[in-house]
Amino acid sequence: MPGTDEHMPPSDWAVLALLAEGPTHGFAIARAMAEEGEIGKVWSLRRARVYYAIEALTRRGLARPDRTVSSRRGPDRTILRATTSGRRAVTGWLNTPVEHVRDARSVLLLKLLFLDRRDGDPRPLLSAQRARFEGIAQRLQSSVNEASGFDQTLLRWRLETATAALRFIDRLLEAPAPPRAKRP
């Protein structure tokens, strides 16, 4: 897809996912991504990094300025929106499992958060993620007894982490869908 980069950093994906929810301005995105913000509880960004991401997304053609509105609390604000390609890219990203188990705590949770915010079904992502992590766990299990020294310690750690991630995914897949929280 023109303008997309599957190796885009998670921070850029988070900003794009917020823009895909609807037109907004950089300050609102920065507030949502602050440590105490709605997104910041999973993935936080400093304000300067938010604006850098907006510039990068605009250069890629995934976001664009929409209009300018006046603000009572500072300079005029540029309202931004995701382009059609940007919205398509976010949908693809949200449905693609993470590559590594180490990304479950950050990127997978970020994807689950955005799926929840758009009332999306997380089960396809979770099922694909489970298949990916299951393959990793099987490879680690077959390697752990052949290793020695610190290599074995590292492989055991990675196997335990993969097993815990699989258990987490299984619990999410087994759980009934929670009632939808109302957002203001």
Shape: elongated
In the predicted model, the low-confidence regions spanning at least 5 consecutive residues are: none
Task: Report the CATH superfamily of the largest domain.
Answer: Winged helix-like DNA-binding domain superfamily/Winged helix DNA-binding domain
Specify the CATH class of the largest domain: Mainly Alpha
Could you characterize what this model shows?
The chain has 184 residues and is mostly helical. It folds into 2 domains: 85 residues, Arc Repressor Mutant, subunit A; 59 residues. Helix content is 58%, strand content 8%. The protein contains 7 helices and 3 strands, in the order αβααββαααα. Strands 1-3-2 form a 3-stranded antiparallel β-sheet. β2 and β3 form a beta hairpin. α1 packs across α3 and α1 packs across α4. The protein starts with 9 loop residues before the first helix and ends in a 10-residue tail after the last helix.
Short key terms for the protein model shown above:
2 domains, three-stranded antiparallel beta sheet, mainly alpha, 184 residues, Arc Repressor Mutant, subunit A, elongated
In terms of topology, how is this protein built?
Layout (H helix, E strand, L loop, with lengths): L9 H12 L2 E2 H8 L13 H13 L3 E7 L7 E6 L1 H11 L9 H14 L5 H22 L4 H26 L10
Antiparallel strand pairs: 1-3, 2-3
Helix pairs in contact: 1-3, 1-4, 2-3, 6-7
